[in-house]
Design a protein that fits this description.
Blueprint (H helix, E strand, L loop, with lengths): L2 H5 L2 H25 L1 H4 L5 E6 L4 H13 L4 E3 L4 H9 L5 E5 L3 H7 L3 E8 L4 H30 L7 H12 L2 E8 L6 H4 L1 H26 L6 H30 L7 H26 L4 H14 L11 H9 L1 H13 L6 H25 L13 H10 L1
Parallel strand pairs: 1-2, 1-3, 4-5
Antiparallel strand pairs: 3-4
């Protein structure tokens, strides 16, 4: 065989196509998606809660409202409601000016503002909010130090002890409290664990989808298509349980996750596998092995649309739309709530279950409509001599 003939073989042509297709699909999906960072950071929502009735609090709240680069800044929430919204990741940052802020500033006491972030959220949110808070604190600290210096260092020839006391008062005139809600253990392996668990499960389910649907088609005529479809789902469930045991053994040995959440995480991992399997099986039931060509961009889209790195508020419309109808977003957000958060994962689990049930229903319709029933092979009849032997043995 010559090299030209080899290049014309089915395997070579398929490999060349997939090499080009994967490169174009990956770059064509990832690069536009990541332009949302930091371009769409202004889409994040924050709250400024000003409980101070004095001039200083109102002045700072007004300055922050004008200078911060966010389109939506809530100013009519109570601190309790704002923190609740932050807990549910409906806000990215809560700035709280306490009620005694102006009085403390006027009396020369140290003043403080609380900046609260939720670490059980997209990594981009927690990191960018940390930078925003640092910038705000630096500006406010310099401003207050300057005002305090002008107010108390008008006189010279002060006693040494009094001068030292006033210098300390200048230095401590303002403090910005960086408050963390739902502290995630240090290490990127912890913060990215929800995404890693989800990705590992999804890729395994995608490969199983190709193999099991192939077995379904190869077994046609050996059993009814209804029975074969049930066999496919049952086998997928067995794989889901076994892969969950394997993946969680590795995850809980390496990551800093409380073992008390082991059972809820295991239950979700099994649910995720079944949902992912049925989503990935749809193109394969329709197109056969060629369905993997569609499954690859679907996987790549979810890598951005799962909310682990970019929150839904910052996503472009196609990615945001994808986050609702595919499993990964619901899974990642549920894992964040279970492992590190303080809210119920129920809404995300219901979303994951709905995606899985919808995908299974689509597969049932595809099998019913496109896969025509074949006559089931009857078992070969035993020869008369063997029948007689069986009767004697009985």
């Amino acid at each position: 065989m010559k090299f030209k003939q080899f290049l014309k073989s089915k395997g070579a042509i398929a490999s060349i196509f997939m090499g080009i297709f994967y490169a174009v699909a990956m770059l064509g999906i990832f690069l536009p998606g990541y332009t949302a960072i930091p371009g769409n950071m202004d889409e994040l929502k924050i709250a400024i809660v000003n409980e101070d009735k004095g001039e200083s609090g109102n002045q700072i709240a007004g300055q922050l409202g004008e200078s911060l680069p966010f389109k939506t800044i809530e100013t009519d929430l109570t601190n309790k409601q704002a923190l609740k919204d932050l807990e549910h990741n409906e806000l990215a940052l809560v700035i709280h000016i306490p009620e005694n802020f102006s009085a403390d500033a006027q009396s020369g006491k140290g003043t403080n503002i609380d900046f609260t972030v939720n670490e059980a959220s997209s990594t981009m949110v927690s990191s960018s909010m940390s930078s925003v808070v640092t910038q705000i604190n630096n500006e406010l600290s310099a401003n207050f130090s300057q005002q305090t210096a002008q107010g108390i260092l008008m006189n010279f020839n002060l006693p040494k002890e009094q001068a030292a006391e006033m210098a300390e008062q200048i230095e401590n005139s303002y403090t910005g409290n960086y408050v963390i809600m739902n502290d995630v253990p240090t290490g990127m392996h912890n913060s990215m664990l929800p995404m890693f668990l989800t990705m590992a499960c999804y890729v395994g389910a995608m490969i199983a989808g190709m193999q099991l649907v192939g077995s379904f088609k190869a077994s046609r005529g050996k059993a009814s298509k209804t029975k074969l479809f049930f066999y496919v789902q049952l086998t997928a469930l067995i794989i889901a349980i076994l892969s969950t045991i394997a993946s969680l053994t590795v995850a809980f040995l390496i990551a800093d996750v409380d073992t008390s959440v082991l059972l809820p995480v295991a239950g979700q991992q099994i649910l995720l596998y079944m949902a992912a399997f049925n989503v990935c099986a749809i193109p394969i039931f329709i197109l056969g092995e060629g369905g993997m060509i569609l499954n690859i961009p679907i996987l790549l889209m979810q890598t951005l649309a799962n909310g682990a790195t970019i929150p839904r508020d910052m996503m472009y419309a196609p990615y945001e739309w994808f986050s609702y109808i595919t499993p990964m977003y619901h899974s990642v957000q549920s894992y964040l709530a279970i492992m590190f958060g303080s809210i119920s994962p129920a809404p995300y689990l219901w979303g994951l279950a709905a995606v899985g049930a919808g995908a299974m229903l689509i597969n049932i319709i595809i099998v019913w409509v496109f896969h025509k029933p074949l006559p089931v092979d009857a078992p070969a009849e035993q020869p008369a001599s063997l029948k007689k032997a069986d009767e004697v043995m009985a």
